[in-house]
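Box 4.2: Ligand-aware structure prediction
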Amino acid sequence: MSDTITIHPMTMNDYEEAMALWRRTEGMGLRPADAPEHIARFLERNPGLSFVARDGETLVGTVLCGHDGRRGYLHHLAVERAYRRQGIGQALVEEVLEALRAIGINKCHLFVIKENRAAIDFWQHIGWEWRQDIVIMSHYTGALETPSSENRS
Ligand SMILES: CC(C)(COP(=O)(O)OP(=O)(O)OC[C@H]1O[C@@H](n2cnc3c(N)ncnc32)[C@H](O)[C@@H]1OP(=O)(O)O)[C@@H](O)C(=O)NCCC(=O)NCCS
């Protein structure tokens, strides 16, 4: 990874740039839960677990992580296309795992859209296990607008 790349805990000051990156990143499912007030609540509930990578001033990568007291849940790992294959994605994931370790969380899960084969290959390459024994089931509570065309995330 180039010396000009730095990794920082994410704050709401990063939100606009992060959202712009998410919007132009393939495989990133954005939902009403990604609106600023919800990301602000997520960051507040999970301090020090989400990170951004910057090249100088420019945001080039993100990762979000939260935990429920037992397990970590990682979301929105994205690296700007021109910056991929330089170790930034893996460095962001390592920051998350280190931060979880520091608060005693021993395991982290993540969700990948099945068609996102490149991401699955990446996760397996860096040592994550593809769980074939688990199915995710979801239900809306009605607290937020329900995306009409999708039933995911
Ligand atoms: C997945 C993603 C974050 C990887 O970021 P990255 O910065 O390019 O990854 P890194 O450079 O840190 O890669 C770490 C290792 O994984 C390998 N790798 C990266 N992408 C890979 C891929 N698609 N398939 C197989 N291996 C891959 C790298 O070669 C490197 O291996 P090495 O250390 O043996 O050389 C990036 O491709 C991305 O933003 N994709 C679109 C968004 C997305 O799908 N996110 C995941 C949602 S679950």
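In the box above, the bound molecule is coenzyme A. Residues 88-102 form the longest helix (15 residues).
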